[in-house]
């Protein structure tokens, strides 16, 4: 084989290897924290998280790496039941709390009020996702105004709930959709207690985990 052909093949191989590494690194970076895909059916697939209720849901997370950051948050939910298409646009409040494995501690360490994320109907296998085969499931994406840094391997809690801005008495409540990931660390406020409360019997003991992603 001519020497020039060997060099050309080596360069092609090196380019493919570099591209593979870059794609792999990108994939890992985009998977900073993923609590799993949203559920579409079941006996209890969502939790009310709306300031008009008033109920705020909080979910725990922990970031890997040596100096993790957050620049974008993705979550899943719906306004319903709502007969219009699409449902009314809602603002959201987003808060991040320090805490322990059992719940948030103190005031939020990061908070944004009345943010308006990008919203589109979520697709599964190329088809619009419908809750119970009827109601549109929406995917929300919001880029933070500036990147924030958190400590690795440390319990944090994120609360996402629809704000009251621009709503009326007929505005449907918003609900955060759960994930298939098995867990039971969901909290509600006020005050911060497990969403399942054995005294008031809010929900069955396995209240589930919420569907969201955190990107660096």
Detail the topology: elements first, then pairings.
Elements: H1 3-30, E1 33-34, E2 46-48, E3 56-61, E4 69-79, E5 92-100, E6 103-104, E7 110-115, E8 118-121, E9 123-124, E10 127-128, E11 130-131, E12 135-136, E13 138-149, E14 156-162, E15 174-179, E16 187-189, E17 193-194, E18 209-210, E19 212-215
Antiparallel strand pairs: 1-19, 2-15, 3-14, 3-16, 4-13, 4-15, 4-19, 5-6, 5-7, 5-14, 8-13, 9-10, 11-12, 15-18, 16-17
Q: What does this protein structure show overall?
A:
It is a single chain. This protein is mainly β and 216 residues long. The protein has 1 helix and 19 strands. It is globular, with a radius of gyration of 21 Å. The model is unreliable at 10-29 and 197-206 (pLDDT under 50).
Features:
216 residues; mainly beta; 8-stranded antiparallel sheet; 7-stranded antiparallel sheet; 1 helix; globular
Give the tally of β-strands: 19
Number of helices: 1
How much β-strand is present in the residues?
35-45%
Q: How far apart are the first and last residues' alpha carbons, in Å?
A: 46 Å
Largest sheet: 8 strands, antiparallel
Return residue spans where pLDDT drops below 50 for at least 5 consecutive residues: 10-29, 197-206
**Strand pairing plus helix content: what structural class?**
mainly beta
Q: What is the general shape? A: globular
The topology string of helices and strands comes to HEEEEEEEEEEEEEEEEEEE
Query: What radius of gyration results from the CA coordinates?
Result: 21 Å
Mean pLDDT: 79
Helix content: 10-25%
């Amino acid at each position: 084989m001519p020497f020039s052909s060997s060099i050309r093949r080596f360069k092609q191989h090196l380019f493919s290897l570099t591209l593979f590494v870059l794609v792999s690194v990108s994939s890992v970076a985009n998977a900073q924290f993923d609590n799993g895909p949203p559920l579409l059916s079941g006996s209890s697939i969502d939790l009310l998280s709306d300031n008009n209720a008033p109920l705020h849901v909080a979910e725990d997370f922990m970031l890997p790496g040596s100096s993790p950051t957050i620049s974008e948050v993705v979550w899943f939910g719906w306004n319903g039941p709502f007969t219009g298409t699409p449902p009314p646009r809602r603002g959201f409040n987003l808060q991040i709390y320090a805490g322990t494995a059992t719940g948030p501690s103190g005031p939020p360490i990061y908070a944004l009020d009345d943010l308006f994320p990008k919203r589109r109907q979520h697709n599964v296998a190329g088809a619009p996702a419908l809750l119970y085969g009827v109601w549109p499931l929406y995917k929300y994406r919001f880029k933070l105004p500036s990147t924030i840094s958190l400590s690795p391997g440390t319990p944090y809690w994120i609360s996402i709930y629809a704000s009251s801005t621009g709503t009326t008495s007929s505005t449907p409540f918003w609900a955060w959709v759960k994930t298939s990931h098995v867990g039971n660390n969901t909290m509600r406020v006020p005050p911060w207690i497990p969403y399942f409360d054995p005294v008031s019997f809010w929900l069955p003991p396995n209240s589930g985990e919420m569907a969201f992603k955190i990107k660096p």
